[in-house]
Amino acid sequence: MVTMEQLQTFMRKSADDDKARKFVNVSGATLDDALREASVELALPIKKIEYEVLERGSGGILGIGRKPFLLVAYPMQKKIDITTSDDSLDMDFGFEPEKPKDVDGEAIVRLTPDGVQLKVTPPVGAGESVTERQAIQAIASRISVKPDTAMISQIVKRADAEWITVAEFDYNPAQDSFISCDITDGEMRAVITMSAPGDGGSDPTAEGIRAVLESNGVIHGVIDEVLRELEDHPRYREQVTVAEGTRPQNGADARAVFNFRTESRELHLQQSKDGRVDFKELNRIENVVEGQVLARLVPAEPGTPGQTVTGRMIPAKDGKAIDPPLGDNTRLSDDGRSIVSEINGLVKLVSGKVTVEPIYIVEGDVNVKEGNIRFLGTVIIKGSVEDGFSVSAAGDIEVIGSVGRSSLEAEGDVIVHQGIAGKGDGGVKAGGNIWSKFIENSQVEAGEMVVVSDGIINSTVFSDKRIICRGKRASIVGGHIRAAEEVDAKQLGSVAGMETLVEVGYDPKSRARLLELEEKDAELAKELEEISLNMATIESMRQNKRPISPDKLKHYAKMKGRKEKIQVARQKLSKEIQAIHAYLDELKSNGRVSVSGTVFPGVKITIKDAQLPIRRETRSVTYIADAGMVKVTKYEESAADISIRKRGDRDGDTAN
After folding, report:
1. 331 secondary structure, DSSP code
2. Which of 67, 115, 379, 612 could make an SS bond with 393 (beta carbons 3.0 to 4.6 A apart)?
3. Coil, helix or strand for 432?
4. Cβ neighbours of residue 147 under 8 Å, at least 6 residues apart?
5. What are the Cα distances from residue 273, in Å, to 284, 285, 443?
6. What does the CA dihedral 203, 205, 211, 213 come to, rounded to 10 degrees?
7. Nearest to 250 by CA among 305, 297, 312, 314
8. Distance (Å, rounded) from C-alpha 94 to C-alpha 98?
9. pLDDT single digits (tens) 455-479
10. Distance in angstroms (rounded) separating the CA atoms of residues 609 and 611
């Protein structure tokens, strides 16, 4: 938008230019002679001179009454763009504006029944403007007439691309340009051919061409730009397409737009912030959660009919509907527009259907080919887990082979058929049970039981319930063994007296939870005490009939509501605290270590707070806590069910 300040700057500059402009008065027998005289006086080419006609000359009759042309001429003034003054805003949009192409102005002449008409177009960019001389020459090239030069001068100055009559001629309608029309390509195209006008005939006009088309039944797809171009620059004896029909557009078929990688085995390496790529993180698995949108259904689109240049409609086909590609564990959303997952798991396209699988199966080893695994379901590995790789699962992990210096973590159970050999660095953690043939130089932690058939060697094994080592070679040698309820093994320690620490009757997680709950209960008790004191103050004021402000009454109501919430919360805390105390007390009385074979010196047994270092070999015993001491009793085998928990079609085989 042009501001007032920009307009004032423009007016001041125009006034200054007018004062500095040089004017000359010249004359000549003809307009061209006068312009040549001005060119000499101003030392400028004619195309850079502007002029005004003060008196139009005439040739007289036989030289009698001849009058010269009188002009006032001056240098051509450069156009000022008032929107680009120094005070205008400089907007930077981050890209260079496209510069217009430089195009010269043009003087166009046509012959019509109303006379000779002239149209002058303005230049574009740095193009040259049309001069009066060029306009006169353009007329002379078409017809020999005497034009109105004053009118031509005004038309050239305005250059507004409007047709203006500048002369008359003897019009002969019989010599007009003739236009023929052909309809081709199955009525999808209209083509015209124009003949040049004869002496006294008129040129075709856009409206004239349109009238011919209508008379031939062409009512659709007329190309207005072509008609306007033919009006300015007729193309005689040449076929020109002036109308095109509209082709029918068949509707697109319904489709599903997937929100996941359809190529499940495709590698997707990720780069860290420092530019490094971990080639163990191949990201082959695309996990999804229950309720996640897996695909968006795009309905079929209706077809768009076409139309010939004569107006005849051409039907189009509508797109085809498809059945939603629903596979296992997926469903349609409530609005029917999306496919969502019914479970947590692995999403993939199976036979063209969106499927979520709760189990991810690795046919071989977990190595550089497979990469690390993170899955929101159960993982079954038919080979082994090689050193340096990790497997995480929201369900179970089952390894048919062995586990090396690797990391396994499952919210459910971990089952290792050939054993865990961590080489001092590997770790296995399960929210449920852990079954393994053996555990060696590893760190193992289970939320429930740890069951081993061939022994535990130099490992740290923690269980929130039981550690059962039962089998022909079921020994626990070295390391640190801790279970909340009991440890049951065939042999503890070794002949060499290797230090083996065994702890039962103690649950650090429950103890930490108990401390957390007791601390929270103490905070609520303190807050409840303060609220009770504040409420008692207001109640005392009421009993003594002292005035109480509305704000205090409102505050009293809030304190009363908060007091009730605290009391409810403390009741819940109290129940959980009592339950944990009962559990810990039960561990204290029931925690035990049972050995069906030999207990060797070097073993240290701790039950709750009581400790017992083993100084001589003992056979077939069970250790319990009694009166703050570790008591030795006759061996009693654990009654725990150590069979592998059933999952799907799994049978009840043990780890043995």
Report:
1. E
2. 379
3. coil
4. 116, 118, 136, 139, 166, 167
5. 21, 22, 31
6. 90
7. 305
8. 13
9. 999 999 999 889 999 888 889 999 9
10. 7
